[in-house]
Amino acid sequence: MSPESTGQNEHYLTVYRRGFRAWRGNRPFWAGLFTILGGLPIAYFPYANMHLGNMTIAMSTTAGAGSLIIGVLLVTLGLTMWFHHIVRVFAGVAAILLALISIPVANIGGFVVGFLFALIGGALSISWAPGDPEAAQAPDGPEARTVRDDVRAAPEYDRASHDTAEEPRGPMLFKAVAEADGGRHRAG
Predict the structure, then answer these.
(1) CA 175, 135, 123 angle in degrees (round to 5)?
(2) What is the pTM assigned to this prediction?
(3) What is the 3-state secondary structure (H, E, C) of the chain?
(4) Are 42 and 13 spatial neighbours (Cβ–Cβ below 8 Å)?
(5) Based on the number of CB atoms within 10 Å of its own CB, is 178 exposed (0-12), middle (13-18) or buried (19 or more)?
(6) d(CA 114, CA 80)
(7) Which pLDDT score is estimated for 72?
(8) At how many degrees (to 10) do helices 88-105 and 113-127 cross?
């Protein structure tokens, strides 16, 4: 065994941490977490009792069932963002709407804490976009030429005519993808 092979001697917590990092990077993790954290106070506060000395203050309202439903739906939407990230836009819009509805229904949105968390979580879910795995890897093959290689190969390129240290930028080249349907949409 060579000293360069590190995969076999790693601690199991390191392996789990890397696996969790990869799982977290492929979905709107923070959006789901904020949405779940927003749903918990909205569902909890209408059923909580505060004790001030010998006096008990009940914060339950007539809309306690509505608060519980909103809180449970927000937690469900947060879990949906984690495990079914394809519907992240729907879940984000629904989380924002439920957060806005929680202001009059659920003790000012869980005393504004739940409202803000759910609102931020919904906005993060809408704005999240999956990463492009092809952009992270360098292309190989004949399409691997860079723009600078194309500029250098162009006949009108003359290095002495440019007085800056930076090379001139050429046109952006894209890899053409030929589709079997001639570029039309699948539905039309």
Answers:
(1) 120
(2) 0.64
(3) CCCCCCCCCCCHHHHHHHHHHHHHHCCCHHHHHHHHHHHHHHHHHHHCEEEECCEEEECCCCCHHHHHHHHHHHHHHHHHHHHCHHHHHHHHHHHHHHHHHHHHHCHHHHHCHHHHHHHHHHHHHHHCCCCCHHHHCCCCCHHHCCHHHHHHHCCCCCHHHCCCCCCCCCCCCCCCCCCCCCCCCCCC
(4) no
(5) exposed
(6) 18
(7) 94
(8) 160
Structure token pair of residue 53: 């000395």
Would you say residue 168 has pLDDT above 80?
A: no
pLDDT tens-place string over residues 103-158: 988 888 888 999 999 999 999 999 999 877 665 555 555 555 554 555 455 555 45
Tokens of 112: 């504004």
Buried/exposed 147-166: b ≥16 CB within 10 Å, e otherwise: eeeeeeeeeeeeeeeeeeee
Has residue 6 got a pLDDT over 80?
A: no
Mean pLDDT over each residue of the chain, to the nearest integer: 77
